[in-house]
Structure formats: structure tokens, C-alpha cells
UniProtKB/TrEMBL annotation:
Organism: Methanoculleus formosensis
Top EC class for this record: ligase
Alphabetical list of PANTHER family matching this protein: ACETYL-COENZYME A SYNTHETASE, ACETYL-COENZYME A SYNTHETASE 1
Name under which the protein is recorded: Acetate--CoA ligase
Superkingdom field: Archaea
Record lineage: Archaea, Methanobacteriati, Methanobacteriota, Stenosarchaea group, Methanomicrobia
Length: 629
């Protein structure tokens, strides 16, 4: 891409009701931010003191570029902070999780009940030989047991690797092997749009190439229950029933790993992002409480799945560390009808609603008459995450859902950052199209390739200039890839996004600078989709690009050359589509496949995706001097 470029900025601004500012946890953003800048360690020290530690830390931070340690020598357990702290601190009977199933079934787990479930399941896992530091893969639908399994691992000090239940067998196998997981926790099926998703079949396929897995725990939901293979499968309910009720929380060093979560890389295999116990707990606790302004009576619904970082940080760890009530719903936003979500907001009195722009755009399409059928007056705060919230979607969200009353917190962050880094704090003026400013605790800027800040109105690279508590510590098994984040632009963590600032410091995120495609808020690596396509016998080479889409932000378009003897046509398109779906899951399936005689390449043989993209979008391909004949 060009060094820097000019961007036309949106100028609309919304002023929030002064009452929500006055009552917010951060009533004065400017002051909070300057207090943080004045004494960053003191700022985080204060936050960390609001949580329970088994041993205090010696130093808030140790920064040895590009390696950080936070709350050095402090000892804690994050599950203890999410459960025991509340059970003994007056929230015993408060609902922790309200689960809603597509069938309409509901289940409420109070903090006490969740605490019990977690302790029993932790004992169950330990009876299978899971201990501190061991990896457990969790591949489940959106059910309370998924969260129980995560917290049980955290309680034991085992490292969880949650794989989104929508991934296919190859994607699952790769993640299991990379993390070297000993135990897999899964379910027989998930339910979606009235259909059953055969998770156990996908698991059994994956397990043919994952020698590290010793046991699989299966939550059986279907009736009659499927027979399990006693040599390698354990029934979830039986495991819990025979486990002892009490399980002390293991004392963890601040820097012990808490989880691995895979995110697509721009080249090569997905990266296992490693987060640690202490800093991650403090960062997610602080941002959940302050950015969403969580009060004691709030009911928070984050519509993500715990299989993504949004679910890890803002369904599970952040909100539960704060002690709030969390809603989870299995299924899709428009099933059985496009009013399904709004009915749930009304029935459960949801006050804080956090979703993705792709969902908002889908609701826009169905029309404002759907939310208008329900009483949404309980809503107080609306959040957005995953991709740019375009001004039209902002306006619709603000008026049709928020009734012109609720502040919108558009939160920019990543799997790697673990917590929100940019938003418009409650009570601050909102600018549609802009995520906002760095939160107190984060130092974010827009710079050129050499790391110099660019002037307002000029696009550049989004970077983070100082370490933060919940930053990734490494890429599992590949520290070299970790260092790349910090040595691409001198002195900075490079997020891989392009952005622009306005005169007042509001940041607009423009999209990815690299070969990642954000489809419906999910990061897809071009390399992963291309290798899935090439693994089909008919395909010689493949190149994929992102194509703007009104609903999903982007869709994937694949250009494919065929091996001699293969015949292009609709039949092959269908077959390749099925092939990618089976391998990577529905999120990575190309919306379009085009057959080509050859792909544009550099003289050194690299596929030039930007040439394909320019042709597809009718744009100037830029410098093509390296294009081969
Ligand atoms: O491109 C940015 C986009 O999502 C990327 C991070 O993806 P992932 O690690 O999967 O985490 C998604 C949920 C935190 C970013 O590099 N992104 C995320 N939030 C926003 C966003 N783009 C614009 N505005 C946002 N609020």
C-alpha cells in the first residue's frame, strides 16, 4: 500500500444525555486518561487492588521490549475471582448465567450454582489426569457447560483452547495438535435454525489425526443418548456426578498461561495467541466495568460465542469478574423470526447489549418494525465489535434499538489485545464511523511505516505504543511470530489495521492492512482458505480476496486454476464449496469461485492478490511492475 493516504472524515456527532455521564464509572474521560498517562503503573495498580489475590505483586510491570510481565510475582486464580469472590461477597443468589435455547428452554445458574458446577467439573477433569499447565481443548455449542469447562480449567491451572463450534474437522485437528491437548470437551450436537449440528461426528473425524488426545468428554444432549466408546469417551454428566463437590482454586503465578486462542494469521497456519492469568484478569475486569459501565443490577448480553475472544473476555472473564448477570443464547439472531433477539431483550430485561456490525446490518435489512414490536426500554448501553460500525449502521442501532437514548460503545480490539483498546467512553460525544479514543490504560496511535504519527485526516497504521496488562505474551510454539508484531514498525505493536484520526483524536478504523479478510466479524486468513482449496484434487492453485458486502462487511471470492483433466463448472463449484466447509467450517466458505487459466504473479512467483482485487472492484491495481508476463 501507499505510505499514507488522505481520508474524508465523517463530521456528524451525537451528544449523550449528561445524566449517563454523571453516573458512569468513568465520568470524566479526559481526566481519567491524563491520570493514567501521568502514572500508568499507579493506574493499573489501583485497578488490580479491586480484585482478590493470594499473594500481592512486587512490581506492577516489567518491560523488556517486546516482552512484558504484569503484576510480577503476584498469585491469583481468575476462576476464584469470577466465582468464590462473589459467593462470599453477597452475590450467592444472583444469576451469573441465563441460558436461552433455540427451543425456548431456559436455564439460570446463580453464582453459587455456577461455583458448584465448576468445582465438580474441575474435579472430573482432574480425575482424567488434567493438571496445572496441561492443555484442554473445548469444542462445544453455546451452552453453560462450555463456560463451566473454561472456568474449571482456570480453577485447576490447566490451559484451555476453545475452538468455535462452527469450525470443521481440519481446523479443529490443527488446533488440537498445535496446542497438544490431552483432553477434549465436546457435545454430541449443537442446535441452529432448528437443525442439529453433528459435533461428535466432526470430532471423530478430527480425532483420527490427533494422537495427543487421551480422553474426550461428551455432553450428551440428544434423546435417546448416543452410545459412547468407553475406551476413549467419557459422559459429561457421569463425570460430574461422581466427582467430589469441593475443589480449591489453584494458586497461579500472574504470568502462568490461562488460555490459548487461535486467530488467523496473514500467512501460514493460525496463531495460538497466549494470554496469562494476572494481566488478562485485570484488563478484562477493568474494561468490562468501565466501558460498559456495569452496575449491580445490569443484565449483559454479549451475542458472541465463547469460541472467539469477544466471548472469552466479555461473556466469561470480564463480566463474571465484575459479578454481573450474563445472558447467552444458542442459535441465530433471526430464528425463529427476526424479532427473536428483541423478544429476549424484553423478556430478560437486558440492559447492556453487545453485538457485531454484521448483525446490526442484518437487522437493518429486516426493518425497524421488528424491534418496534418489543419493549426495549430496559436497554441502557449498546456495544459493537469486530469490524467498522459504518455510520448508517450506527444511526440505525442508535435510533431503532437504543431509542436515541443509549450511548453506543464501538470497541476496537483484537484476540491479541485481550481487552478493549479504543472506544468512546460512556458520556463522551459519539462520532458515527469512529470507534473513539484510546481507553484509559491504552496508548494507541496512527503512524507511518517508520512509526511517526501522521496528521489528522491522513491514513496510516494503527499501533499500540506501550505494553498493556492483557496483551498477548507469545504465539504458542512460535515466538518468532510474536516478535513480528513488535518489530514491523519500530517501537510499536503493529495491529495490522489501517486507521485515521480526526483533529480531536477520534480514531476511525478502516480495515486490515494485510491478507486477512474480516467476514461477518470473523478474521479469515487468505492462506488458510487457499490451502483448503488446493487440498482438493481438482485444484492446482488458488487465490482468495475479500470483496465488500453490504451485510457481512466482506465476503470471500476465490480464483482457482485447475489441474489437467479437471472440468470447470457449477458441479465443481458446489464440490469445492463443500470441501472448504468440511475442512474449515461455514465461516470460511467462498461466496464466489471463479475458474482461471492462470493467476497473476510476481516474477518471484508470489500471487498478486491485489491485482485480482483491483480487477474485481474495477480499481487501479497500483504498481504492477513486478507482475510477470
Ligand atoms: O480489523 C480489526 C477488526 O477485527 C480485528 C481483530 O479480530 P479478532 O482478533 O478476531 O477480534 C475480533 C473481536 C475483538 C481487528 O484487527 N475489529 C475489531 N473491532 C473493531 C474492528 N474494526 C473496526 N472497528 C472495531 N470496533
Amino acid at each position: 500500500m501507499a505510505e499514507t493516504f488522505a481520508v474524508k472524515l465523517e463530521e456528524r456527532c451525537y451528544y449523550p444525555d449528561p445524566r449517563c455521564k454523571a453516573a458512569a464509572w468513568t465520568p470524566d474521560y479526559t481526566r481519567a486518561y491524563s491520570e493514567f498517562l501521568h502514572d500508568p503503573d499507579g493506574f493499573w495498580d489501583q485497578v488490580a487492588r479491586e480484585l482478590d489475590w493470594f499473594e500481592p505483586w512486587d512490581r506492577v510491570k516489567e518491560w523488556n521490549y517486546p516482552y512484558a510481565k504484569w503484576f510480577v510475582n503476584g498469585r491469583l486464580n481468575i476462576a476464584y475471582n469470577c466465582l468464590d469472590r462473589h459467593v462470599t461477597g453477597g452475590r450467592r443468589d444472583k444469576p451469573a448465567i441465563i441460558w436461552h435455547a433455540e427451543s425456548g428452554e431456559q436455564q439460570v445458574l446463580t453464582y453459587e450454582a455456577l461455583h458448584h458446577e465448576v468445582m465438580r467439573f474441575a474435579n472430573g477433569l482432574s480425575s482424567l489426569g488434567v493438571g496445572k499447565g496441561e492443555r484442554v481443548c473445548i469444542y462445544m455449542p453455546l451452552v453453560p457447560e462450555q463456560i463451566v469447562a473454561m472456568l474449571a480449567c482456570a480453577r485447576l491451572g490447566a490451559v484451555h483452547s476453545v475452538v468455535f463450534g462452527g469450525f470443521g474437522a481440519d481446523a479443529l485437528a490443527m488446533r488440537i495438535n498445535d496446542a497438544d491437548a490431552k483432553v477434549l470437551v465436546t457435545a454430541d450436537v449443537g442446535y441452529r435454525r432448528g437443525k442439529t449440528i453433528p459435533l461428535r461426528e466432526i470430532v471423530n473425524d478430527a480425532l483420527t489425526r490427533t494422537p495427543c488426545v487421551e480422553k474426550t468428554v461428551v455432553l450428551r444432549r440428544e434423546i435417546p443418548a448416543a452410545d459412547l466408546d468407553p475406551a476413549r469417551e467419557v459422559d459429561y454428566a457421569e463425570l460430574v456426578a461422581r466427582a467430589a463437590p469441593d475443589c480449591p482454586a489453584v494458586s497461579m503465578d500472574s504470568e502462568d498461561p490461562l488460555f490459548i486462542l487461535y486467530t488467523s494469521g496473514s500467512t501460514g497456519a493460525p496463531k495460538g495467541i497466549v494470554h496469562t492469568c494476572g494481566g488478562y484478569m485485570v484488563g478484562t475486569y477493568y474494561t468490562a466495568r468501565h466501558d460498559f459501565d456495569i452496575k449491580e443490577t445490569d443484565v449483559l448480553w454479549c451475542t458472541a460465542d465463547p469460541g472467539w475472544i469477544t466471548g472469552h473476555s466479555y461473556i466469561v472473564y470480564g463480566p463474571l469478574a465484575v459479578g454481573t448477570t450474563v445472558v447467552i443464547a444458542e442459535g441465530t439472531p433471526d430464528y425463529p423470526d427476526p424479532g427473536a433477539y428483541w423478544q429476549l431483550v424484553q423478556d430478560l430485561g437486558v440492559t447492556i447489549f453487545y453485538t457485531a456490525p454484521t448483525a446490526i446490518r442484518m437487522f437493518m435489512r429486516y426493518g425497524a418494525e421488528w424491534p418496534a414490536k418489543y419493549d426495549l426500554s430496559s436497554l441502557r448501553v449498546l456495544g459493537s465489535v469486530g469490524e467498522p460500525l459504518n455510520p448508517e449502521a450506527f444511526e440505525w442501532y442508535y435510533h431503532a434499538i437504543g431509542g436515541g437514548r443509549c450511548p453506543i460503545v464501538d470497541t476496537w480490539w483484537q484476540t491479541e489485545t485481550g481487552m478493549h483498546m479504543i472506544t468512546t467512553m460512556i458520556g463522551e460525544p459519539m462520532r458515527p464511523g469512529f470507534a473513539g479514543k484510546p481507553i484509559p490504560g491504552a496508548v494507541v496511535d496512527v503512524v507511518d511505516r517508520r512509526g511517526n504519527p501522521v496528521p489528522p485526516g491522513t491514513g496510516g497504521f494503527l499501533v499500540i505504543k506501550e505494553p498493556w496488562p492483557s496483551m498477548l505474551r507469545t504465539v504458542h510454539g512460535n515466538d518468532e511470530r510474536y516478535r513480528t508484531y513488535w518489530n514491523t514498525i519500530p517501537g510499536c505493536y503493529t495491529a495490522g489495521d489501517l486507521a485515521v484520526k480526526d483533529e480531536e483524536g477520534y480514531i476511525m478504523v478502516l480495515g486490515r492492512a494485510d491478507d486477512l479478510i474480516v467476514v461477518a466479524g470473523h478474521n479469515i486468513g487468505t492462506a488458510e482458505v487457499e490451502s483448503a482449496l488446493v487440498s482438493h484434487e481438482a485444484v492446482a492453485e488458488a487465490a482468495v480476496i475479500g470483496k465488500p458486502d453490504a451485510l457481512k462487511g466482506n465476503v470471500i471470492k476465490a480464483f482457482v486454476t485447475l489441474r489437467v483433466g479437471a472440468t470447470p463448472g457449477d458441479g465443481l463449484v458446489d464440490e469445492l464449496t463443500r470441501h472448504v466447509k468440511k475442512s474449515l467450517g461455514p465461516v470460511a466458505v467462498p461466496a464466489e469461485i471463479e475458474f482461471m487459466d492462470r493467476l497473476p504473479k510476481t516474477r518471484s512467483g508470489k500471487i498478486m492478490r491485489r491485482v485480482l482485487k483491483a480487477r474485481e472492484l474495477g480499481m487501479d491495481p497500483g504498481d504492477i511492475s513486478t507482475l510477470e508476463e
